[in-house]
Amino acid sequence: MRLKDKVAVVTGAGSGMGREIAYLFAKEGAKVVAADINETALKETVSHIVEKGQTAIAVVTNVAKEEDIESMINTAVSTYGTLDILVNNAGIMDNFLPAEKVTDEIWDRVFSINVKGVMRAIRKALPIFLEKGKGVIINTASVAGLYGSRAGLTYTSAKHAVIGMTKNVAFQYATKGIRCNAIAPGGVNTNIGTTMSNPDPFGMERATAGINANPRMGESSEIATIALFLATEDSSYVNGVVIAADGGWTAY
């Protein structure tokens, strides 16, 4: 019970890595506020947790909307009295669009969800953490945020932004008892591919040029264990770090 009585908000909790993080955090004693735009999937996540005698509530959230972010954090505080852990996991892909094909619409949509949503959640959580003198923020980045072509231009740029944000928040609030770290998954079996509708052939071919060097695909549960480490005092001296979880793919 490494997270006993901790209150954790997890975005993108309706599936994939977010769902597994919610499951594991609840198993370890956390009171989980599960957030996702997909109400049906979100209810499945929460039902699974509650059926095991653990604690979770669902908050339908579009992280691209500021009012939804506000409601998500406010619900955590009004329901459980506080907030201890914020996991910014929700995200979408970009159809592997190369620079020449990027539209303002796709750029704004991906950045609204993958970057602005993260910033707004952090901005909303920080006053709570500052008052407590402690708090943990975990952002889901990607190896696309570490290297140049694991996706299209927009997703790559967005995940680089998340990593920059992670390091900035980590250092600036380090003396306030607040830690901010990121996980950069490689190829993980999730449903994020469903956020793509028509992948660009050229962009996809270039972005997947090194895919044969990937030793294996990862599982969402393997990412969840890293999130648990970052959420607990086991990682008390870990701050501003990006943990690549890719089976050794980017070590090539």
Helix content: 40-55%
- The computed structural class is alpha/beta
Task: Note the total helix count.
Answer: 7
The dominant shape is globular
Cα(first) to Cα(last) distance is: 37 Å
Please state the CA-atom Rg, rounded to the nearest Å: 17 Å
What value does the average pLDDT take?
97
Query: Looking across the biggest beta sheet, what order are the strands in?
Result: 3-2-1-4-5-6-7
Q: How many beta strands in the DSSP annotation?
A: 7
Low-confidence stretches: none
Largest sheet, strands/sense/barrel: 7 strands, parallel
What distinguishing features does this structure have?
7-stranded parallel beta sheet; 43% helix; 7 helices; alpha/beta; 7 strands; single chain; 252 residues; 15% strand
